[in-house]
Amino acid sequence: MHFDPNMRTILTVLCLLLLLAVYVAAACASNRRHRRWPHCRIGCWLLGLLCFSWSVAGPISSHAHHSFASHMLVHLLLGMLSPLFIALAKPVTLLLRTVGRKAARSVSRLLRSRPFAFISSPINASVLHVGGLWLLYGTELYGLMHAYSWLYVLVHIHLFAAGYLFTVSILQLEPSAHPRSLPYRMTVFMLASAAHAVLAKSLYAHPPVHVTAEDAASGSMLMYYGGDLAELIMLTLLFSAWYRARTRRLSASIVHAGQPPNPRYS
Questions:
Q1: Which of 15, 80, 96, 100 is packed most tightly, with the most Cβ within 10 A?
Q2: What is the value of pTM for the model shown?
Q3: d(CA 199, CA 197)
């Protein structure tokens, strides 16, 4: 089933406005009972929705059916940048601050469940995210997804969901029932980044079926350098978390020793 591009764009814009309105309404409701919700998180939510919208509607989405480079731009927007901005918006924390106690307990039980612990593990999330890309481009799946609409939609749903799971499992910006240490998360992140870079280089040398060498070169370079940008942002956030944790430990050790705290670490 093929939707009219104009109708798809209209539906996408309406969904974007609805999701933005729901988030802002939740932030306003949260402000009445808790500390004010930062405006920068609302901005991150908007950027995440925009990246998602650009990847599923409009010229980029249309060209992705015929151009590998445009498809790779969709990959970056939908699988890396949109999940990153949405993770920075902390939607789960906002949800828990907004809903009632009964609903919050239900959400907490879901987050503590074994299935969620399994898929949200950094290693498993990396396999779903990067391994899914190797499967997509290393098999006939890339060609088949353009032949069957239902498969095209399914691949893109997986691309976003796996990207979001990977991002939240590595950054761990929100309270987690299954926390992992920072060194462990950084190690998994570096391995996943290396696998992503190797895939980009392999696509440059060995294009997918029915993709020209020139188109594959443009798409693989976009995947390589565009992926570096998203990974650099994540790496900066990880090092910031490491620095804050180190500063808190140093301040605590100084106070515990009975010495006045150094203003540098206050």
A1: 80
A2: 0.88
A3: 5
